[in-house]
Amino acid sequence: MTDPLPLGSTIGILGGGQLGRMLSVAAARLGFKCHIFEPGTKPPAGDVAHAVTTASYEGIDALTRFAKACDVVTFEFENIPTSALDVIEAHALIRPGREALRVSQDRLTEKNYLQDLGLTVAPFADIPDAAAMTQAMNTVGTPSILKTRRFGYDGKGQARLKTPQDADAALADMQDAPAILEGFVDFDFEVSVIAARGPSGDVACFDPGENVHRNGILHTTTVPARLSSAQKTDAVLLTAKILNALEYIGVMGVELFVADGQLIVNEIAPRVHNSGHWTQNGCTVDQFEQHIRAIAGWPLGDGTRHADVVMENLIGDDMDRVPALARAADTALHLYGKAETKPGRKMGHVNRISR
Amino acid sequence: MTDPLPLGSTIGILGGGQLGRMLSVAAARLGFKCHIFEPGTKPPAGDVAHAVTTASYEGIDALTRFAKACDVVTFEFENIPTSALDVIEAHALIRPGREALRVSQDRLTEKNYLQDLGLTVAPFADIPDAAAMTQAMNTVGTPSILKTRRFGYDGKGQARLKTPQDADAALADMQDAPAILEGFVDFDFEVSVIAARGPSGDVACFDPGENVHRNGILHTTTVPARLSSAQKTDAVLLTAKILNALEYIGVMGVELFVADGQLIVNEIAPRVHNSGHWTQNGCTVDQFEQHIRAIAGWPLGDGTRHADVVMENLIGDDMDRVPALARAADTALHLYGKAETKPGRKMGHVNRISR
User: Fold this and answer.
1) What is the ipTM of this complex?
2) Residues of chain B found within 8 Å of residue A348, distances taken between Cβ atoms
3) Where is the ATP-grasp domain positioned along the sequence (chains A, B) (predicted)?
4) What local confidence, expressed as pLDDT, does residue B153 receive?
């Protein structure tokens, strides 16, 4: 598809969480309808969507009907089973494409891909078995983090090694899943670049934001990040390099460590990203609309930052603070309408704006 | 209801057009679900709502089921049949309340109400019949506008009288509907104040915007309006006076003529208003969220204006300009997802921002 998606077309979204929800609202703002595919009942995105299919990713009939009802299909998470993508691809265009998913679904593939592009990544080693682990203690060493190669998010499927004595316990934590050992980077801070690329190759990056995590979950993103002008340029250029190499279509989040002034690529996410939520109140066109524009083949929008923003996630009991937050000046609330509050669950976020 | 509406509650919206659509998105952002009631099929609001009831305002069963499914019911237009409101009121709270609808559904009642509040309105006369028209030629005279007392919008149900010779033709245009003759105000410009009032009596006004109409339909709203500081204060105070007198809950649009420095109340709309669309890109909390906050008994949000904005409606063939508008800097597109483009139909709007 090279022609722009016509007004009134239907965009399919795999995943009905908060990212799908905010994508659906952005798509509606441009005159598109959204169809959500989500195994779980009462998905947050379902409250703002044209249609919802509740079915598993193994349900070939449901996937087929869904794909036939959509003009283009996108996703809010990267761990989509390959078999589901195969079914969808027979009937509808998938954007971003399969290559970005292939690379980002596997931490080892991703690290090799980034390294082959000439980018700096943390020291890493493939850990298929205990013997590899013993060897990796000599190359990567400690402190380091053992991670499952696939299906990790928000700090899950990870074990920290402070000393080589932690290796056995960490390996046991992986429960025989293929893993990768990553050298711990003693970074000064972390930033992320949210970037979009359209089918014609145009790339637009939002200003880098600075991330703070708590318990392995993003806590705040602050713009502007503490980057020098040269670092900001470098961050944007290396991000564009990744998107161009993948011939990527859509929005991608790229997390970078800043260590001794150097930019080290931590990971890429082939989708809208939690660290880009500040764009909703800091830019004319936010990351969600930018993603929709890209996958629809529309011109990318004006993502110039017009305010300083601190985005803070509302996680679990943070929801008790909503009444106070609702009263605060220069504060935009974004709640996800999730029925149940659980510890560690992302329930909403707040953007605090200063000009 | 004095307690704030709990998260996850359902808000009913009578009317599924663009105003209902944008209200529904704002409600979702605060964690509420929206249920749209609309006689027409494929309502624009249906694409971003939790539930849709397609039924007529005469359908008592459908209205009852709808009302029972909602925690509070609001509306996107003022011409709701009284009988429908009676059915809903038996099962759900209606906000804004019936008094605001009673006053604003009838131009004569509205004019009298505003005059009784000590506000300035254009000269007017009740025109129940031809004899009253003859008499009104001596009191109101010409130029003037004959309007049906009820069910007019976007310039419909109106006839202009340049000279007394136009009286018979204008009366015939009314097709025996009760009418009101309004003296034509030779105004310098028109502004509107979008204001919100919560159940506890707190009032918040957005900055007045300056309106330009074409063919009886709003064309642009520009903020800031060309008002002196004193005029701006007066506009806000008189608006608050109306909301307080009505013990109003929700957002109201108040249109004012500025003539020789004087503020003349043209009309009030007990709902979010087209001339308030600029708030989507000019304020942290827009008129739609402000309305939801008010009817939910939440604290009103921060509606401080942080940019200059020109809102332009996209009407009918203006949609041909969407590809160019999508490329423009500092320009936010808001499309309504209407299936068919017709002359005079509001298809979307664009907010052009400058800082």
Assistant:
1) 0.95
2) 31
3) 111-296
4) 60
